[in-house]
Design a protein that fits this description.
A hairpin with an 8-residue loop joins strand 11 and strand 12. This protein folds into three domains: 12-88, Arc Repressor Mutant, subunit A (Orthogonal Bundle), CATH 1.10.10; 93-156, Beta Barrel (OB fold (Dihydrolipoamide Acetyltransferase, E2P)), CATH 2.40.50; 161-240, OB fold (Dihydrolipoamide Acetyltransferase, E2P). The chain has helices at 18-24, 32-42, 48-54, 62-74, 122-125, 232-240, 249-257, 265-277; strands at residues 78-80, 86-88, 95-101, 107-111, 118-120, 133-141, 147-156, 161-169, 172-177, 186-188, 201-208, 217-225. The longest helix has 13 residues, at 62-74. The strands form three sheets. It has a five-stranded antiparallel beta sheet with strand order 5-4-3-6-7. A five-stranded antiparallel beta sheet has the order 10-9-8-11-12, covered by helices on one side. By secondary structure, it is of the alpha+beta class. It starts with 17 loop residues before the first helix and ends with a helix. It is extended, with a radius of gyration of 27 Å.
Length: 278
């Protein structure tokens, strides 16, 4: 297919959303809608350099324009082909959505734009984790008649830290995530376990995300304690559901400015009176 640039019938001034962009940004760029319209008009994959020309992007605007393209790519509006050219995802029948894992190893893609969920086999799920966003192409139907998808590109990795239980097997250290929708164990390299003991609950930071060829790798950054410790269920739940579990530094600093409270004689007298009354 030819990738020769066609002359655009539009210029930057004809962006129908120019006023909106001007109201939101000090240095407005072409809107996402206008970028997609311009790409559609070309009818073929377009390089970033060609978009600079078509949309009259100056040299001083290119960095922030690239950020807009990257955001559009993360959200599944556009995708890069093997040659690095940009394509409109809808035009090549790709579906963007959020990955939903299952404890049995398979999963589903929940499309951003609605429609039927796509089944993801354990093989496809090996390259993503629950909660990631991905671009998928429907590859057919599974044995139960459900539409089945094949991952084309991972758009966004949403898991940076996980809570789980440390496991040692034949000299290999792993962490099994407490969220059972994350079916893959995290490999911990030697010296990256903070000397945690087998069975302890830890927080792990991912240093390598999963791929079609390798499992995820992480390092232990916090040891929460033993699974049977008092209050451990709460500690796990807070981290599992990504709820705040630490006070902001500013709040801690402010609290430390107050002197330590010690009960005075008046307080002791009132307490003794209450005890006598009871």
């Amino acid at each position: 297919m030819s990738t020769r640039k066609k002359q655009s019938n539009n210029n930057r001034g004809s962006d129908p959303h120019a006023k909106r962009e001007a109201a939101n940004y000090a240095n407005p760029l072409p809107s996402r809608e206008f970028i997609l319209e311009t790409m559609t008009e070309q009818g073929v994959p377009v390089s970033v350099g060609q978009l600079y020309e078509l949309l009259e992007i100056g040299e001083g605007e290119q960095e922030i324009f690239n950020r807009r393209l990257n955001a559009m790519e993360r959200e599944g509006q556009i995708i890069r082909n093997r040659k690095g050219a940009l394509c409109i995802a809808e035009k090549i029948n790709l579906i963007a959505g959020k990955v939903q894992g299952h404890p049995d190893g398979f999963g589903f893609l929940i499309p951003d734009n609605g429609g039927e969920d796509l089944f993801l086999s354990p093989r496809e799920m090996s390259q993503v984790l629950h909660g990631d966003r991905a671009m998928v192409r429907q590859s057919g139907f599974d044995r139960r008649g459900r539409p089945e998808g094949k991952i084309v590109e991972v758009l966004e990795r949403t898991n940076q830290k996980l809570v789980g239980r440390l496991i040692r097997e034949q000299g290999v250290t792993l962490v099994a995530a407490e969220d059972k929708r994350i079916n893959q164990d995290i490999l911990v390299p030697p010296g990256q376990d903070m000397q945690a003991k087998a069975g302890q609950v830890v927080m792990i930071e991912l240093i390598e995300q999963p791929s079609a060829y390798a499992q995820p790798i992480g390092k232990v950054v916090e040891i929460l304690g033993n699974y049977a410790d008092s209050g451990m269920e709460i500690e796990i739940a807070l981290r599992k559901h990504q709820l705040p579990y630490e006070f902001p530094r500013a709040a801690v600093a402010q609290a430390e400015k107050y002197p330590e409270w010690k009960p005075g004689s008046e307080f002791k007298a009132k307490r003794e009176a209450m005890l006598k009354t009871n």
